[in-house]
Amino acid sequence: MRSVIAVKRRDSWEFIPLIKSLGYDIAQIVEFSGEKNPKFYIGKGKVEEIKEMISEDSLVLVDAILKSSQWFNLENTLGVEVKDRVGLIIDIFADRAKSREAMLQVDYARLKYEIPLIRETIHHSRLSEHAGWHGAGEYEIADYYEMIRRRMSKIEKKLDRIKLEREERRKRRRKEGFVLVGIAGYTNAGKSTLLNALTSTGRITEERMFSTLSTKTSRLGRERVLITDTVGFVEGMPPWLIRAFEPTLEEIYNADIILLLLDGSDSIDEFKRKLEVSQNIIESKIHGKLIPVINKIDKASNEELEQKIAMLKELPPPELISARNNLGLSELVRRIFKEAELEEYSLTINDDSLLNYIRRYGKIEAITYDERVNVKFSMRRSFYEQLIKKLNQRSNGKEALRG
Ligand SMILES: Nc1nc2c(ncn2[C@@H]2O[C@H](COP(=O)(O)OP(=O)(O)OP(=O)(O)O)[C@@H](O)[C@H]2O)c(=O)[nH]1
Ligand SMILES: [Mg+2]
Question: What is the pLDDT of residues 111-120, one digit of tens each?
Answer without folding.
Answer: 999 999 988 8
